[in-house]
Specification:
The complex is a heterodimer of chains A (156) and B (156).
Chain A (H helix, E strand, L loop, with lengths): L8 E5 L4 E6 L2 E6 L4 E3 L2 E3 L3 E5 L5 E2 L2 H6 E5 L5 E4 L3 H8 L5 E9 L5 E4 L4 E4 L3 E2 L3 E9 L5 E10 L2
Parallel strand pairs in A: 6-8, 7-9, 8-10, 9-11, 12-15
Antiparallel strand pairs in A: 1-2, 2-3, 3-4, 10-14, 11-13, 14-15
Chain B lengths: L8 E5 L4 E6 L2 E6 L3 E4 L5 E2 L1 E5 L5 E2 L2 H6 E5 L6 E4 L3 H8 L6 E8 L5 E4 L4 E4 L3 E2 L3 E9 L5 E10 L1
Parallel strand pairs in B: 6-8, 7-9, 8-10, 9-11, 12-15
Antiparallel strand pairs in B: 1-2, 2-3, 3-4, 10-14, 11-13, 14-15
Classes of the chains: A mainly beta (156), B mainly beta (156).
Chain lengths: 156, 156
């Protein structure tokens, strides 16, 4: 499919049934009914939240969605998840919507992610000192979500 | 470039050769011919698949693209075979470099081995011991082939 070097915006490929987004003639995103793919390098916004309180706290929905939380405290801490309804209100998420969240623990403590209304937790929720743990959050419904423990590595 | 607080959809920045997407005056995504940058947190549709069969099986393309499988089986070693590359490419498109992460969690009492399939090869260790979790980066290598790269294992 010939595309002008000046083309910007949408273009539909009837033969392959792709809806593509172009910037100056280059396809940068391709949408199918089954997936969306960036066809150039892609990056996304992450917001770092730093905790130093050494006391238990409840993460806000915005902090969780920000994707990166770093806790430098030196006592055992419980980090409580936000209400699922707060997360859904912030994102307007449909069931199945998901994002990754990483907790960095360079402090001298074990941090434990604890549940809140609407959550189901899968896997280990304790993050020992000098570890980073990534979690997958999946919205299951307007009032329910699941948190899956993913990769845990040493913080360098 | 001044943008109305009512702006929705595309706006092309001629000076910087970038195509931005706006929602109510907020730039939420920016694309150039070389990269796409999401300027707000992004969520992706993912499906967590739970396996309990205690026997080997072939992972479907939809399950793989769904991004997460948890296998709670408790009897003997299990082989989880990847889907054929063609089946995955049919879902995600054939643009070389298209990629996604797939995580396999094993809280069961067995070792799971991810095995290759037609035109779908694996690079790195593909066994997931009991109580471990492993993430793979799956990448379209050509219009007909895919590669899964092991990204390491950690405790689930």
């Amino acid at each position: 499919m010939a595309v002008s070097a000046r083309h910007k915006g949408w273009r539909y490929d009837v033969q392959n049934k792709y809806l593509s987004n172009y910037v100056d003639g280059t396809e940068v995103t391709r949408l199918l009914t089954t997936s969306i793919a960036d066809t150039v390098a892609a990056s996304e916004k992450k917001t770092l939240t730093t905790k130093t309180s050494a006391t238990d706290y409840t993460m806000t929905a915005a902090e969780l969605l920000g994707g990166l939380l770093r806790d430098t405290t030196s006592g055992a801490t419980a980090a409580k998840l936000p209400l699922v309804t707060d997360l859904v209100a912030l994102t307007g998420s449909a069931a199945g919507s998901s994002f990754y969240f990483t907790y960095l623990n360079p402090g001298n403590s074990t941090v434990t992610i604890t549940t809140h209304t609407g959550w189901t937790l899968h896997g280990t929720m304790a993050i020992t000192t000098a570890k980073a743990q990534t979690f997958l959050c999946i919205i299951d419904s307007a009032t329910a979500a699941s948190l899956y423990s993913m990769m845990g590595i040493l913080v360098q | 470039m001044t943008v109305s607080s009512l702006q929705k959809g595309f706006r092309y920045d001629k000076d910087n050769a970038r195509l931005s997407t706006y929602v109510n005056g907020t730039e939420v995504s920016r694309a150039t011919a070389t990269q796409v940058v999401d300027l707000v947190p992004t969520l992706a549709q993912r499906v967590a698949t739970i396996k309990t069969s205690g026997a080997g099986y072939t992972i479907t393309a939809a399950e793989l693209v769904g991004g997460f499988i948890e296998d709670t089986s408790a009897t003997g070693g299990i082989a989880a075979t990847l889907p054929a590359a063609a089946d995955v490419i049919a879902l995600v498109g054939a643009a070389v470099g298209t990629s996604f992460y797939f995580t396999y969690a094993n809280p069961g009492n067995q070792t799971v081995t991810i095995t290759a399939a037609t035109a779908f090869t694996i690079v790195g260790t593909a066994t997931i011991a009991t109580l471990n979790v492993k993430t793979f980066l799956c990448r379209v290598a050509s219009a007909t082939a895919m590669v899964a790269y092991s990204m390491g294992t950690s405790v689930y």
